[in-house]
Design brief:
This protein is of the alpha/beta class. 42% of the residues lie in helices and 21% in strands. It has a five-stranded parallel β-sheet, sandwiched between helices. The protein has a four-stranded antiparallel β-sheet with strand order 6-7-8-9, covered by helices on one side. The protein has a three-stranded antiparallel β-sheet with strand order 10-12-11. One of its GO terms (molecular function) is phosphorelay response regulator activity.
């Protein structure tokens, strides 16, 4: 079955161009012009991937992304914008966008990003029978995408969960911020380093018994972060 893609773009010629190109790649494509229409389409039939313009009339792309993430956390979000500042990119990633493309862009670049996003979704589905990970009171269920600490559920955002799961799948191995950006966010740009730090801080606040003296997610000075599999003596 073809992957389903929803395009949310208010520029009519660009919307038509994207729809035509992605349909030619074999995807089932729906296209809408506003955030309100996007939310209606998402409720009617959730897609696998959303190509979402940031600057929409009325409800902007950031708000659409927030609402989408709350209702459909597994949908991949590729955000488009005419803005180029680092702050705009970071904000988009903070609210749950999986990837970011700045206008103007080539159609080949966009198609490559879409393919990469769909490959990542497929990989997630292929690990659907993975057993829960358990570490001294912390339980991480990759299939149900849920976390418990001392038997109590911990509510994480999509990106917080993906970051925690990646680190826990590679216990005791230090990762640089750039490595985490590549593996969890799928981007390769050091300017996003503070996004990693802010997610680590929020994760610690939610899963650590004492966030100021973390048991699970440790800072490796001069390198980055690691997941500590067991208490050190």
């Amino acid at each position: 079955m073809s992957a389903r893609i929803l395009i949310v773009e208010d520029d009519t010629p660009l919307r038509a161009l994207l729809q035509e190109r992605l349909a030619a790649e074999g995807y089932a494509v729906e296209a809408v012009a506003t955030g309100e229409e996007a939310l209606q389409a998402l409720e009617a039939r959730p897609p696998d991937l959303v190509v979402l313009d940031l600057m929409l009339p009325g409800m902007d792309g950031l708000e659409v992304c927030r609402r989408l993430r709350a209702r459909h956390p597994a949908v991949y979000v590729l955000m488009l914008t005419a803005r180029s500042s680092e702050l705009d990119r970071v904000v988009g990633l903070e609210v749950g966008a999986d990837d970011y493309v700045t206008k103007p862009f080539s159609l080949n670049e966009l198609v490559a990003r879409v393919r990469a996003g769909l490959r990542r979704l497929q990989l997630d589905r292929e690990t659907a029978d993975e057993a829960p990970l358990e570490f001294d009171g912390l339980r991480i269920d990759p299939v149900r995408r849920q976390v418990w600490r001392d038997g109590q559920p911990v509510h994480l955002t999509v990106r917080e969960f993906e970051l925690l799961l990646f680190l826990a799948r590679h216990p005791d191995r230090p990762f640089t911020r750039l490595q985490l950006l590549r593996e969890v966010w799928g981007i390769d740009y050091p300017g996003y380093a503070r996004t990693v730090d802010s997610h680590i801080q929020r994760l610690r606040a939610k899963i650590e018994p004492t966030p100021g003296a973390p048991r699970y997610i440790r800072t490796v000075w001069g390198v980055g972060y690691k997941f500590q599999s067991s208490e050190e003596p």
